[in-house]
Amino acid sequence: MRPLVFDATIGWLHEASGRRGVVIAGAHGFEDLCSRRFLTLLAGRVAAAGLPVLQFDYPGCGDAAGDHTDPGRVEAWVKSIGAAVDRLKRETGVGDVVIVGFRLGALLAPLAAAGRDDVAGLALLAPPASGKAYVREMTALSRMIDAPLAAKAGPAEPFDGRQVAGFHLSSETLAALAELDWQQALAEAVVPHMLVLANGRIPDPESLRSERGGIVPEVAVAEFEGYVHLVCDPTANRIPEPTLDLAASWIARLAEQATAPGVADRSNELQILVGPDWREEPVVIGGGSEICGVLCRPEIRTAPATPVVFLNAGAVAHVGWARGTVEAARVLAAEGIASLRIDLPGIGQSAAPAEDRLFLYDDRTSSDVMRVIDWMGQAGFGEVGLVGTCSGAFQAFHAARADRRVRRLTMINPLCFAWNSSYALDLAAWKVYENAKAVRGPDSDAPQEPSRPAIGTTLRAGASKIGRLSIRRGLELVKTALAVPERLIGRSPVERWMRALCARGVKVLMVTSEGDLSLKEIARHFGPDGRRLDALRGVARLGLAAADHTLTPHHARRALVARLIAFGDDDDGRSNKAFVRETAVQRPKPALETP
To answer: Are residues 110 and 32 in the same domain?
Structure first.
């Protein structure tokens, strides 16, 4: 893997020596978080077959400069695919490319291919039926995730558009998306090979075979098997192996028909993305399974401040839920604080671990975090602070215990401090539930005739709910019982570990959302309301009202970043533990340039 910076964005090049390349145009927002790992695995398989592959972020999305709400987004996204094609050709010398589009990327890819003579194929994965259908789907997702949180939070900042799983789409962008039609756009694209993997009605291949520029394309269509399980949740989802194999083999077959290569002009310059208050360098950390990340430094050198390392929240890639980690890193940089956001092995862009591991909670992941801390030391940062949400909080906690270079620890909504089999059952049950919910789908927007549910259906639903509650309560009892014997003879091991960290001088910030299950986990180890945790010198508490587990609402993420900034200057690490509704932090400005 080799990182690149171009066209105000960051890309990841999977190197290979073939004469034909591949550009992956991914999804947007929540669907991007769900599919990043799938597309990284696809890129790896295609590169192993001999075709170099470039993944990248659209302008204002992911690691790119700018913001989702900037004007002209759709046009900029289409142009960015062309810029990625040009950069891949320049960097590797390939003669032509295959463009792979997933979801939003499948809507945009035919537009990007129009007017070009160097696109050998289009692989459209789970394309929406149309732009209008895509906007309807985003609206339904917004009503399911964002609307309930907004109702709790009360009046919000005015915004002309819609928030979808924490990502903002302006009214202008939604209107432009609604105008897109990938099948109509194909009329302008001269492409000899085409693959369509549909997540709904499979299109008639004959309708896609019309002659363009003297070429009748070879068209293959099939079902995108496992789509609903892929996009149900970034952490609970399942990688659809049959679909991965099908797409990879179709693309790999095109390597045999590659045109004559061009001349490579590989860049040996340091890859830096420049913003108004920050400079970002994409990095690949070796010494084991490759770890990909982005180092964000202040644009103006200030007095040294302890840098922050952001760990993954569950299986969410390093850009963060609702792009929160990118936004946090750039706000911190504006305040003079450097940060590194990473994908741990097996997540996002990074390579898989060399051995089989427990999902998210493996003790061996601490060694990966320490590799990252080693890298930070080589970059000039002798001490670090660790920030983690959910499973990331677990990994941050245990890495802090193991490595004395960790001086600050921020744990956000931790659901586990010490892993055991009851947590494994809890995680497995949650993943099953999320996948089942995805199969059922969101509630329809259309009004329906009122009807009386069948008695059997009602009983089954009630029994299912009672069963889930029984399992949850049973697991909670098991977790608590496992902690009790230690308390009877002194302190729980988790409390002893936390006391040892504080005695070592580590500052701890514990962040919880109102009503989150992490509050039960804290009470389990530190007493009701976490009172023994509050008594520890060096521990600060931050409560976030009207926020969910992953901090979807912008006000919650903003409050967290404000506290992280203050946390760095807090001598004794103490703060008010009352719930916080809003703290003002300036949003990052758009980037000015990139070399």
So the answer is: yes
Which pLDDT score is estimated for 588? 32
**Are residues 191 and 327 both part of a single domain?**
no
Query: 499: part of which helix (H) or strand (E)?
Result: helix 493-503
- Cα angle value 543/571/377 (rounded, 5°): 95
Sheet of 53-56: strand order equals: 2-6, 9-14, 53-56, 20-25, 96-102, 119-125, 193-198, 218-223
- Coarse DSSP helix, strand, coil percentages of the chain, rounded to the nearest 5 percent: 40, 20, 40
The pTM for the full model equals 0.88
Domain count, the chain: 2
Structure tokens at 308: 């922050």
pLDDT of 132 higher than 50:
yes
170-213 confidence digits (pLDDT tens) = 999 999 999 999 999 998 898 999 999 999 888 888 888 876 66
Are residues 406 and 347 both part of a single domain?
A: yes
Higher pLDDT: 538 or 190? It is 538
pLDDT of 489 above 70: no
Instruction: Let me know if residue 431 belongs to a domain.
Output: no
Same domain for 348 and 219: no
Share of the chain above pLDDT 90, in %: 72
Query: For residue 310, is pLDDT > 60?
Result: yes
Least confident of 306-310, 345-349, 359-363, 588-592: 588-592
Whether the per-residue pLDDT at 560 is higher than 90: the answer is yes
Kindly state the DSSP code that residue 346 receives in the 8-state scheme. Answer: T
For residue 95, give the H/E element and its range: none
Residue where the block lists tokens 């504006």: 334
CA atoms within 13 A on the CB side of 84: 37
pLDDT the model gives residue 590: 34
Task: Note the pLDDT of residue 575.
Answer: 40
Answer yes or no: is 433 within a domain. no
Strands (DSSP E) found in 356-464:
384-389, 406-412
In single-letter form, the type of residue at position 25 comes to A
Quick: pLDDT tens for 148-160. Answer: 888 777 666 778 9
Query: Between vectors from CA 315 to CA 294 and to CA 538, what angle results, nearest 5°?
Result: 70
Strands 406-412 and 384-389: parallel
Query: 245 and 205 in one domain?
Result: yes
Query: How far, in Å, CA of 545 to CA of 151, rounded?
Result: 12
Beta strands in 452-538 (DSSP E): 507-513
CB 340 within 8 A of CB 372: yes
Q: What torsion, rounded to 10 degrees, do the Cα atoms 575, 480, 424, 492 define?
A: 60
How buried is 473 (Cβ within 10 angstroms: 0-12 exposed, 13-18 middle, 19+ buried)?
A: exposed
User: Residue 421's CB: how many other CB atoms inside 10 A?
Assistant: 10
Q: b/e map of 72-92 (b: 16 or more CB within 10 Å)?
A: ebbebbbbbbbbbbbbbbbbb
**Helix (H) / strand (E) containing 256:** none
Residues 41 and 99 in one domain: yes
Q: Which domain holds residue 10?
A: 2-129+182-257
Residue 260: which pLDDT band, with cuts at 50, 70 and 90? low
CB atoms within 10 A of CB 543: 19
Question: Residue 40 belongs to a domain with what CATH number?
Answer: 3.40.50.1820
- Residues 227, 291: one domain? no
Domain shared by 244 and 323, yes or no: no
Three-state DSSP at 155 gives: coil
